[in-house]
Design a protein that fits this description.
Crp/Fnr family transcriptional regulator, 8 helices, elongated, alpha+beta, 4-stranded antiparallel sheet, Jelly Rolls
Length: 191
């Protein structure tokens, strides 16, 4: 739980009383590779924090899986569009490898806001980060070539690229795996 507390401290200071409250509100869960934290159609009832492992976000569009994001150790995971209003999700969140996660329920998150001294500030700052990350993630899909999108992926996930299957990377940048292979070959020829 030290990694979780450090992630929260990135946004707000924590007293020992705050840490005790946090310990009481979060639970731990282990996931196997391939297991889902969330499936489309279900309501996202928890915010997760990855202590160990890697997950991907994806939707099924026209019968095909489209990967939209990845999260790794030290990051929060949630479909906020489902979590905040408590409405059914349109995305899936799946473990790409065995994961250990801490999670807090929707109702416990409200207790976090009330009981932790700067809890509401944490919620605001964390959601601001989510919003900025989302904008930065979507912009290249509309403005950049596939090669630039792949370079963006490499800069965004420099230490996890080898842990993600190539077909998920191709899906994330919006191309077929064969096109990704050609891009990687061209890029390796430059080195």
């Amino acid at each position: 739980m030290d990694m979780l507390l450090k992630a929260i401290r990135h946004y707000i200071p924590l007293s020992s009383d705050d840490e005790t409250i946090i310990w009481s509100l979060f639970r731990v869960q282990k996931l196997q590779k391939g297991q889902h934290l969330l499936q489309a159609g279900a309501i996202c009832k928890n915010i997760f924090f990855i202590e160990q492992g890697l997950v991907r976000y994806y939707a099924i569009i026209d019968g095909e899986e489209k990967t939209s994001y990845f999260n790794k150790e030290g990051e929060f995971v949630c479909d906020y569009a489902s979590f905040l209003p408590q409405t059914p999700s349109t995305i899936n969140i799946q473990a790409l490898e065995a994961c250990t996660v801490y999670f807090i329920s929707h109702s416990n998150m409200h207790l976090f806001y009330e009981r932790v001294k700067y809890g509401e500030r944490f919620g605001r700052l964390a959601l601001e980060d989510v919003y900025v990350n989302l904008i930065n993630q979507v912009r290249p899909l509309y403005n950049d070539t596939p090669e630039l999108r792949y370079q963006f992926f490499l800069s965004k996930f420099p230490d996890t690229g080898q842990r993600i299957p190539q077909y998920y990377i191709a899906s994330y940048i919006g191309i077929k795996p064969q096109s990704l292979s050609r891009i990687r070959k061209r890029m390796s020829g430059r080195n």
